Amino acid sequence: MKNIKIILIAFIIIIIGYESGIMIANYMKTNGTLLNKISDNTELVWNGPRDKKVIAITFDDGPHPRYTPKILDLLKKYDIKGTFFVLGKHVEFYPETLKIIKDEGHEIGNHTYSHVDVKKIPSRKIEEEFNKTQQKIYDVIKEKPKIFRPPFGSYNTYLKDLAKRHNVKIILWSSSQDCKDWSNPGVKKIADTVINNVGNGDIILLHDYVNTTSQTYEALKIILPELKRRGYRFVTVSQLIKNKDYEYEMKIIEN
Ligand SMILES: [Zn+2]
To answer: Which of 26, 197, 248, 250 would disulfide-bridge 176, Cβ 3.0–4.6 Å?
Structure first.
């Protein structure tokens, strides 16, 4: 009788253990991604917390007098703070535009000097592109960025080490928020991609400079009021990720 009791208890323990194992595994796996608790020194970020209606809108490849000021006016109209990942060479050409971004309360990040793919250049060159841009930005706004976005979302171990050494976070973007506005897919397509896929904690990727006519500004006229209507609060990237206990969604990408 005693033996049967022990066997029964052992059986129950095994079942409970198995069930909770499955629950944890299901929690960890969401749409092919893995939720990982990221420690303070983790330098790769794809999004912010999923439990609040807070998002970050980001603009790459500027500053440029053609579209950046128009986008800034639109952000001001809707009382939105954004994040601009700038190219060192554009900062050199258009320091005044960078200054306006800063003065209007937006965050500025490093996007390399000449839009290089860090996987295709030697380590020494990565360091040079990063440092030169930090310095160019510092010369204008007297602050060095705490965030870096590698062009093409491309990164390697050397870049991660460099970011750690400089206490800079590598900021990517939410996988559903890459509308490829730089390829001019159409104003409606850009707006639909952003609006229909938006979720809490998203980092939205857009561009305030493209070397042709841009559709981004027109799309923003649709995107910004609609997301505000839906109750999303726009913050800068650093604000989005400042609580280090958040869970960030991480893609597992082989280097
Ligand atoms: Zn870029």
So the answer is: 197
CA of 60 to the centre of ligand 1 (A): 5
For residues 174-189, b (16+ Cβ closer than 10 Å) or e, as one string? bbbbbbebbeeeebeb
Q: What are the C-alpha distances in Å from 8 to residues 4, 18, 19, 22?
A: 6, 15, 17, 21
Q: What separation in Å is there between the alpha carbon of 12 and the centre of ligand 1? A: 55
pLDDT value at residue 12 = 57
pLDDT 10s digits, 202-226: 999 999 999 889 999 999 999 999 9
Question: Mind listing the pLDDT tens digit for each residue in 186-199?
Answer: 999 999 999 999 99
CB-facing half-sphere around the CA of 112: CA atoms within 13 A = 20
What CATH number should be reported for the domain whose range is 34-250? 3.20.20.370
Query: Which residues are catalytic, by number?
Result: 60, 207
Tell how far the Cα of 84 is from the centroid of ligand 1, in angstroms.
11
3-state secondary structure of 113: coil
Compute, in angstroms, the gap from residue 7 CA to the centroid of ligand 1: 62
Q: Helix, strand, or coil here: 185?
A: coil
**CA atoms in the 13 A half-sphere facing the CB of 83:** 27
- The answer to pTM > 0.90 is no
pLDDT of residue 143: 97
Query: Is the pLDDT score of 6 beyond 90?
Result: no
Handedness of CA 231, 197, 170, 215 (dihedral sign): negative
